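README: folding subset

This subset contains proteins for which both the sequence and a predicted structure token string are available. Records are stored as plain text. Below is the entry for Putative gluconeogenesis factor (332 residues), shown exactly as it appears on disk.
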Amino acid sequence: MTEKYSVKRTPKIVVIGGGSGQPVVLNGLKKYENDLTAIITVADDGGSSGTLRDYLQMVPPGDIRNVMATLSQLPASLIDIFQYRFKPEDEMLAHHSLGNLIIAAMAEKEHDIFDGVQVLAKIMQVKGHVYPVANEPLVLHAAFTDGTYLAGEAEITAAHKVIDHIWVTPQAAPATHDIQSPKKVVNAILEADVVVLGPGSLFTSILPNLMVPNVAEALRATRAKIVYIANIMTQKGETDNFTDADHVKAINEHVGERVVDAVIMNTGKVPEDYIDWQRWNEISLQVDSDPESVKEQGATPVIGDLLALRDDGAFHDGDAVAQLIMQIAADE
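--- output ---
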């Protein structure tokens, strides 16, 4: 791997992921002086995003919307409108977020989702950069340890089966053409001081980004410090009994090289009687912390109490995580 280097200036930080975990970290990082880039998965096929994806043959907008809302410097009242979700009784608009519809309109207007998002980011006064990992919707595929296969993020998540490995293909026919991330995505990784992976669902939010060939290549080539934020809870069926080191091993194996340099690990304990298991039915148990095995994966453990208990669930404290990321960026 290319030798790393220390940061002597405003750090360039790239956060790769999707789902609900990515905005939590971005919300913490936006409070610091940095050059921030969010790279977002486009393999989601559920909910409003999935409907728009199928109907308009576009990149699913939901994760992009949440990141833009997080990084926007517009008044909170305008962000609330952007995030507004229509009621179930609203027939053709039921369950759609207004922001999803706006992103769909910008993609159509600019004839390109990537360009449409860049124009909208300026309108919304976004701090940093918001980049979909690909300019086309991707189909997620999973091979399970029982020898079966499934396609589609929603179906893979709902299967609650142990995943051996995942890969992505383009949604559009022919599905044989090479998937490539836009040049700005690759350059952001190559020019970064720190690349952050996660937190989020390992196989459905983080790894789909890394399965785009030129993204994996950029991660192998970059001089950035690559940091994985270990999940607090395992995901039912997907990462049951995974330690934080097991997550790192899966990332390295999918990328094809030991790329993770540091792992941000939580020491806070989730009370046994706190989680509402019906509400948060996709999670299983708290991830076991194994610093020695993380070191065996070639990564440095970065440890702290990062636990935020709210809404009967266990989450990362975005401010605490951001502080550790900034410390990693500043390390000589």
